[in-house]
Write a structure and sequence with these properties.
This protein has helices at about 5-10, 30-40, 65-70, 120-130, 185-195, 210-215, 230-240, 260-265, 285-290, 305-315; strands at about 5, 25-30, 55, 60-65, 80-85, 100, 105-110, 135-140, 145-155, 160-165, 170-175, 200, 220-225, 250-255, 270-275, 290-305, 320-335, 335-345. By secondary structure, it is α/β, with parallel strands linked by helices. It folds into three domains: about 5-85, Alpha-Beta Plaits (2-Layer Sandwich); about 95-160, GMP Synthetase, Chain A, domain 3, CATH 3.30.300.110; about 180-345, Vaccinia Virus protein VP39 (Rossmann fold, 3-Layer(aba) Sandwich), CATH 3.40.50. It is elongated and about 75 Å long.
Length: about 350
């Protein structure tokens, strides 16, 4: 049972009322709980020794510091109340699984179940995110569309969610089109490199992360392509969702990457090409060469166990191209990662 602090200061705690040691909890409406918990957690304000609980239509989040809470939640409607949440055993960090959170849905890799039981996994994720709608296990990624095979572990089936990246809205179809929430920062980072007036070609765009970010920041022409019809549908919807924020123009295409050059007549005119197809991107170097103007830039994403070896392979496939830099974008597996390599086409070509 939770009591408002003003009431408690006035009347005190009634004699005989059951409960353990009184703590402070942030009381928020259910639809705000996930965002509030994330904000408090980022500032280490959540009490790690007690469980998040429900009280009627509200969620109670045990906290450590009232002053810090007021500062962290300036723009949020909440109450700071006394509460007696059940205690929990401190979980060791290595027991918290790696997972992705997409619009209130948690997705974990199937290897997590090799060291964690299903019931324990559900309990851990729901204690971290009390507002979860569902938990899925990603069993594999299949076919040329890079779509994941998802198995519902807990909750109601969820087919489509809405996510935010830097204030931009994206519809995501779970299990039917490629989307990785960990690329949000990368979408924005690459978009920031684009200059006004550029012609950009994104050959494997998925639901449109790179194009929408670019067009929101720059007056660029972005040709966005994906072979997956479902990804193309979402790309078009995401362009429409964000149209008021777009400075640039996005042309959506549903083609094989090798057909883009002839369809939109951009051969040798693109200022920048984005190739986010990590397992197979090196197989399309002839396409990048045909699309880019001399001096144009290629951002190519490669699944690599050795970045130096990948650089050597790219230099062999694209002789004379200048390696401008590289960065690890995502950790993929032990000793493997997805890297972005930035290369410039030589001016003399």
């Amino acid at each position: 049972m939770a009591r408002d602090l003003k009431t408690l200061r006035k009347h005190g705690n009634p004699c005989g009322e059951a409960g353990g040691k009184a703590l402070l909890c942030v009381s928020v409406e259910k639809h705000l709980a996930e965002a509030v918990l994330k904000r408090l957690g980022s500032r280490s304000l959540v009490d790690p020794d007690h469980l998040v609980t429900r009280s009627g239509d509200s969620i109670l989040i045990p906290v450590k510091d009232a002053l810090g809470v007021n500062e962290a939640l300036k723009e949020v409607s909440f109450k700071l109340v006394e509460c007696s949440p059940p205690s929990k055993q401190r979980m060791r960090v290595e027991k918290v699984p790696s997972y992705d959170l997409i619009g209130g849905v948690a997705i974990v890799r199937d290897n997590v179940l090799g060291y964690m039981g299903e019931a324990e996994l559900i309990q851990v994720l729901r204690s971290i995110h009390p507002g979860l709608r569902a938990i899925y296990v990603k069993e594999e990624t299949v076919d040329k569309y890079r779509t994941p095979v998802l198995r519902l572990l807990w909750g109601e089936p969820v087919e489509e969610v809405l996510v935010k990246e830097y204030g931009l809205s994206f519809k995501v179809s779970l299990g039917r089109a490629y989307y990785n929430p960990r690329l949000s920062e990368e979408h924005h980072r690459v978009a920031s490199l684009v200059r006004d007036g550029e012609v950009v070609v994104d050959l494997f765009t998925g639901i449109g992360g790179f194009p929408v970010h670019i067009a929101s920041l720059r007056t660029a022409l972005v040709i966005a392509n994906d072979l997956n019809p479902e990804a193309y549908r979402l790309l078009c919807e995401n362009i429409a969702l964000n149209h008021r924020r777009l400075k640039g123009t996005i042309i959506p295409l549903n083609l094989d990457a090798r057909e883009v050059e002839g369809y939109v007549k951009v051969a040798g005119r693109a200022d920048r090409v984005i190739a986010n197809l990590p397992k197979w991107s090196v197989e399309f170097t002839d396409v990048y060469d045909a699309l880019l103007r001399p001096g144009g830039v290629l951002h190519i994403y490669v699944l690599s166990y050795d970045a130096e070896s990948s650089i050597m392979e790219l230099e062999a496939r694209l002789p004379g191209w200048i390696h401008m830099g590289s960065r690890l974008v995502l950790e993929y597996a032990p000793r493997a990662g997805i890297y972005r390599f930035d290369l410039a086409k030589p001016d003399h070509v």
